[in-house]
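During the first year of the project, the team set up a workflow for recording each protein of interest as an amino acid sequence followed immediately by a discrete structure-token representation. This format lets reviewers and collaborators read both layers of information side by side without switching files. As required by the reporting guidelines, we include two representative entries from the current panel. The first entry is reproduced here exactly as it appears in our internal archive.
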Amino acid sequence: MNSSIFKSILLGTALALASSLAAAKPITKKVVRKVANQEITKRANAFRGPVGPVGVVGDIGPVGPAGPAAIQVYARILKDGTVVPSRSVGVTQANIVMVGNDYCFTGLPPINGAQVTVDYFETSGNETAAFGQVGPGCEGVVKIFDGATQVLGGFLIILY
């Protein structure tokens, strides 16, 4: 609260209490609280603007376009390229092809990107995972690295 407004409220409250004394009313916490609340309300009303126009009942704007779809494709992939069905949605074994040490995703809806996380139950703990998009026949590829060396390793992936 601005200090000048606070001082003004205190002064108004003090003046109101002084008038209460002049009328020989006992000053209690209840009286102080009532006078302070009246003063605050009076000062707040001084800053209030005019009320705006009332809208038409039932008048709503047009429905907007649909937002981005929720994540619908994710999977847990083991080191050997096996899809764990109980931890996967939208990805089956038919969607993974091993090409050397690359995990190639095929036959999926268009992929805009992915989040890949190393599955530390399937790696030694020093690996990192990377996702990239490539050309026809492989809509996305995951590579696992231990330092600068590409290795095999399990991972979790969310495709969007």
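The second entry, processed by the same pipeline in the following quarter, appears below.
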Amino acid sequence: MIQSVPVQWPLIQLFRRGVKVQPKSTHQLESNRTDRRRALSTIGLTALSALAGFGVQSDPAWAQDAARNFPVKPVRVIVPFPPGGGADTLIRQLAPILTEIWAQPLIIENKPGAAGQIGGDLVIKSPPDGYTLMMGSTAVLNERNLAQFTPIALVSASPYVVTVHPSIPARTIAELLTYARSHPGDLRFGSSGAGSASHLSGELFKALSHLDLQHIPYKGTGQALTDLLAGHINLMFAPAQTVMPNVQGSKLRALAVTSARRSVALPELPTVAESGLAGYESIGWFGVLGPARMPPALAQQINAAFNKALQHPKVRKDMLDRGSDPAPAGSEEDFARFLQSDLAKWEKLIREKGINVSG
């Protein structure tokens, strides 16, 4: 968990306490006034320096009040991808329940672009008061910017689904490998953007199978899905909640899930590893983050609300029906540890294979 740093407010405290001056002469009065101006100037500079360094007042009493009263106005959740993708679908499933829990509207704003970085930067620059959150995924985070966010709650850590257009004559991973090897460089896989989980899942598939696949990045999963349905790309490593409705409608074909074990939501699909590519494992996560330096008590309160929403029968049914495994209840610290482990895995792959994640 990213901890907030206490910032003292000597200038405010000075005014609260008052400064009583009882001069014995005009000269002493002027001397006291000069000393007082110097003291206030020094204290003011100290306070401004603290503000510049930490950006927010995190007095323990203030933090407790903020958490206790949260929320007193609508909460904005930034989705750094276009509508129709995994992050967008999940937060819209959770929104009605969170609105009930908080008795305040949940406003969802899609801010796509730069593989999630545009929306991520907006959240980073927001006040850490809990009223601007983000439904994020692998694409938005890396080892360099993780400290600019406060991990709050893991929503889903589900396998992706290896999904192909019906024009590809493969019904299993083994058949896909055979077809791809006989058509080197012809197959195109789409992703929600460079550095996203859907991109890195495909890169891991390429690395272990030694296939020549073309990566086509999009601004979000929804846009990639549109091109997959049209046959402009051949396959995707995609969130289940995005592709399974089209699989069930026979518009796409699901071959396998990317996890080490079969998915609770999609038990009929084998894993990639058991289907012909030993050692393959990839998980696509979605979670809630806020700006850095959120007071721990506030992050804990928001975490509890999301955990409660994820246990709601309707939310669980909706997620499972669309092939997404709800995350088990966990703390903000649990989510932070999960992120560090997940990022380390992908950063290693990126370095070793020289993968371009800049878009």
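For the second entry, the following points were noted during internal review. The longest helix spans residues 26-54. The chain has twelve helices and nine strands. Both points are flagged for discussion at the upcoming steering committee meeting.
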